[in-house]
Specification:
Chain lengths: 179, 419
């Protein structure tokens, strides 16, 4: 599975770079939004969906915030994150590097105090087919720490143990971008 | 752009081997260690101090020994029971049980058995110890939090700290050890080994003990092990091979050349014909409960009770006919409130009956003794008793009380209150 997504990511990036340049007007600044989905793969794999809105400052720098859905070890979270990207080119095929970080709000009812934090770096390519629409692929590394406290079946003294999970994940995602 | 694709490949390869870490963060009992050297040089005789906690009691001639659990032994000159005098305190870390043979006192000190010369009661001195005879002995744990693994190489565990710990591995409820090949994974809670009501010339113990002496041997209960120790030469005691006890053993009582063991589900009679290898001779089963036992003549008296560490729902006195040691059987049962220790001297049977206080029964006829209450002291929460030479020495939650049972109304002679 992991190999598939690696190959897919590479293919997407190379394919995008190999396409004939579509004459798209160059955006000088303004809002953007992106909807992406993919996998977080490492010792375990899980799905990730994100919806982000932000602002592009000039031609190179983007910053925004978003929310989404992710799962780790079967526990569900809503990531609330900030992101920023630096675009290397100004054309319609835009390689970039980015950073992201935020809070994970737990959805699981089986545990209490389910929450976490996540942050990472990524690289990728966005290819715009028109002035406002494009496809983006992202490959990144994400460090996530979650914590949760089991509420049931703990018969020993004191509060039930806090379970802390520290995970490194390779992040592979594709999606659409509007600007 | 090819460079960018190459970067992607390197990036992916570098990060694809991520390994998750899962920690548990919780409150646990964390052992506090003392170095072996410091621990083994800690037995010292000190000035008398007030008694704060009840423990096992032992009477040797005119001296009464009272164990302050985990701390040491109070020496009390009891030549005048109306005015007992504390003469000193023997500092013995981790002690819970003791017995005396001749001029030597044997007491556990966490993992060790310490031999103390008491020929001069004004200056008792350690003369020998068997190291690590109780490898799993630990201080009592006053909660039901988990226990982090114990490293024997770090020293002797002398207390516990309750701390929040973060570990990749889950700590256990029962203590576990590392660097201790002789340690099992579990032992009974509360740690150290337990009175004996000896009828030989060495002295007299209360009924709640795990140490006793028969002939040249000591017998020590350590969890699920019964350890014989040859003390024919008290200066060179030799621990024998431990025998496995298949029940939760609580008390030992020597009588008729045998050991009477109180366990949570029955009284077990052990033969010590071969003192190095005691063998289980017979058993009288009862419902699960705590049960000290004392013996006089052809009868054993067993109290069974429920409580914090005792299961079941039974509070009674059982009288067991032991005229045939291979086939003991209950000949009488009598309802009690919450009986703990007991003692018998002649026709007087003393039972420490929890909140009902100290009860004295006429045991002239063992079969009906429980029906003949002679006296009851409800004002004390009695735990154990030594009746000897017309003086009943009773230890309870708040002090040590002495009664003269030569007099019909058992007058109180003295009280040593706990602080």
């Amino acid at each position: 599975m992991k190999s598939f997504f690696i190959a897919f990511s590479l293919f997407a990036a190379v394919a995008a770079s190999a396409q004939t340049e579509v004459p798209a007007p160059k955006a000088e600044g303004g809002v953007y939004n992106r909807i992406t989905g993919g996998v977080l793969t490492g010792e375990r794999s899980s799905v990730s969906f994100q919806f982000a809105n932000g602002y592009r400052f000039g031609k190179r720098v983007e910053a925004g915030l978003g929310l989404g859905f992710e799962s780790y070890y079967g526990d569900r979270y809503v990531p609330l994150f900030l992101e920023s990207r630096y675009n290397f080119t100004k054309g319609n095929t835009v390689p970039f590097v980015g950073v992201t970080g935020g809070y994970l709000a737990g959805l699981n009812q089986y545990y209490s105090s389910t929450r976490g934090a996540t942050g990472g770096v990524n690289i990728g390519v966005t290819h715009y087919f028109t002035k406002h629409f494009g496809v983006t692929t992202v490959l990144g590394y994400r460090y996530t720490q979650t914590e949760k406290r089991q509420q049931y079946y703990y018969i020993w003294g004191g509060e039930a143990p806090l379970i802390i999970e520290e995970m490194g994940r390779v992040e592979l995602r594709v999606g659409i971008a509007f600007r | 752009m090819k460079q960018f694709a190459f970067l992607l490949l390197v990036f992916t390869a570098a990060l694809s081997g991520c390994k998750d870490k899962i920690y548990l963060k919780y409150q646990a009992n964390v052992p506090v260690y003392m170095s072996y050297e410091a621990f083994r040089s800690s037995v010292k005789f000190e000035a008398p101090r007030s008694i704060s906690t009840k423990g096992n009691i032992y009477l040797k001639n005119d001296f009464l020994f009272v164990i302050e659990p985990d701390k040491g032994i109070h020496f009390i000159d009891n030549s005048n029971p109306s005015a007992p005098t504390q003469t000193g305190f023997l500092n013995v870390m981790g002690c819970s049980n003791m017995t005396v043979k001749g001029n030597h006192l044997f007491v556990n000190s966490y993992i060790d058995l310490v031999v103390v010369d008491i020929s001069n009661l004004g200056n008792p001195t350690e003369v020998k110890r068997i190291e690590d005879i109780f490898p799993q002995a630990l201080p009592a744990i006053g909660n039901n939090l988990r226990v982090v693994p114990i490293d024997k190489n770090a020293g002797v565990v002398i207390s516990w700290d309750v701390r929040t710990v973060k570990e990749e591995t889950e700590a256990q409820v029962q203590p576990t050890w590392v660097n201790c090949p002789n340690c099992l994974s579990t032992m009974e809670g509360g740690g150290s080994p337990t009175p004996v009501y000896e009828t030989n010339s060495n002295g007299i113990s209360g009924s709640i003990t795990k140490f006793t002496a028969v002939g040249d041997y000591l017998y020590l209960i350590d969890g699920f092990r019964l350890i014989p120790v040859n003390v024919s030469n008290p200066l060179a005691p030799v621990a024998g091979t431990a025998t496995t006890i298949t029940r939760v053993a609580e008390t030992l009582f020597p009588a008729n050349g045998h050991l009477f063991m109180g366990t949570t589900n029955g009284m077990v009679i052990w033969s010590v014909d071969n003192p190095e290898a005691p063998t289980e001779l017979s058993v009288v089963e009862h419902a699960t409960a705590c049960d000290p036992v004392v013996v006089q003549g052809n009868y054993a008296y067993v109290t069974t009770r429920t409580g914090t560490t005792c299961w079941g729902n039974i509070n009674q006195l059982d009288v067991v006919d032991i005229s045939n040691l291979s086939s003991p059987h209950i000949v009488g049962s009598f309802q009690m409130t919450n009986p703990h220790g007991l003692g018998i001297d002649g026709s007087r049977l003393f039972i420490c009956d929890g909140a009902a206080g100290l009860k004295v029964f006429d045991a002239s006829n063992p079969l009906t003794c429980g029906d003949h209450l002679q006296q009851q002291y409800q004002s004390i929460q009695a735990t154990d008793v030594i009746p000897f030479n017309n003086i009943a020495i009773v230890i309870g939650d708040h002090g040590i009380y002495q009664y003269d049972y030569a007099s019909p109304n058992l007058p109180l002679l003295s009280t040593i209150p706990f602080n």
